[in-house]
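#onboarding

Welcome to the new folks! Below is a worked example of what a typical request in this channel looks like: someone posts a single protein sequence, and someone else replies with the predicted structure as tokens. Don't worry about understanding the tokens yet, we'll cover that in week two.

Example request:
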Amino acid sequence: MTQQLLAGDVAGALANCEKYCPGIFARQGQNRDVYFHLLCQQFIERLRAGHDDTALAMAQKELAQFGVDDPPYLTELMVRLP
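Example response:
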């Protein structure tokens, strides 16, 4: 997983986490902050790769719910944008 993250393959790292530790990133679980940060990184990596459409779709699907559930997450996301 570390190598995947260092290479910018956040989606692969998340998939492996879910494969070997199912439910580790449940939306309301104790790892919610880690999951949010990984999704932010995935969003940024997609933007860097020029995949604006998929980055936007992922943000609307995955990240928007964090802002609905807990608005400070949106502020943190705005700070992280490149």
